[in-house]
């Protein structure tokens, strides 16, 4: 089969190559990949000189089951699915266990649902960690990115008053259309406390977002797109002004390899297919144009998702 593999001699540190077909374990379905979406983490990993040439990467992929799992744990042949994995998604074939794939509607656009595994699941699971959202002020940093866009939509649908933070002021109208009640370029500019924060940026934005929390507020960090460290002043944890019992925690989607994401992936895919959830695709093309997509991502010229159609 053909796949995109790490190649440090190539401009985008990726090149197309012929590699061996995956051999599914008894609990894995073999999926013919039709579309993949790109995340900052994996394209940065490809550019890391510590990643060996020839490594297969790729977390998000959608396609069709061509060989059902031998132990009967997955869907039948011909079923359309969206899949999550730690690697090897950017290939014509992918072997996936049942807990990491979700069945999608027959008429779903594979490119649209391929955006869901990392970004959609991360947004959904972090929002659940924040507790009941109805009537509460919830801040989302990096709101115009992949995780942020899904978080804004899902939080608004849950009844939250969403405060969206995007460093690009041009994203304001788009974020309000997704459900944001308030759009700011900096958490430090928010003039009323929030009950919870989903942070994807880290650095100073994380520090300022924590300062915006009210009493018993919780911040969950799911990314570090700023590339900067979060340095808190000593007074940050004094709980002045009654802002006590605030907390910070981190989130990593695949911390438990046995976690079952199948139902959540299926639900998210159905929402996208029905037009109730906007995947935010800002770049799309055949995988022969992967270099263009990678450069757009690393150059932070995309406010949303990039999709490669496998053909």
TrEMBL record:
Record's keyword annotation contains Hydrolase: no
Protein name per Swiss-Prot or TrEMBL: Zinc-binding dehydrogenase
A Pfam family this chain is assigned to: ADH_zinc_N
Entry keyword annotation includes NADP: yes
Keyword terms of this UniProt record: NADP, Oxidoreductase
Domain Enoyl reductase (ER): 9-308
Family annotation (PANTHER family): QUINONE OXIDOREDUCTASE PIG3, QUINONE OXIDOREDUCTASE PIG3-RELATED
Organism: Streptomyces spiramenti
UniProt-listed Gene3D superfamilies: Medium-chain alcohol dehydrogenases, catalytic domain, NAD(P)-binding Rossmann-like Domain
Origin: domain of life: Bacteria
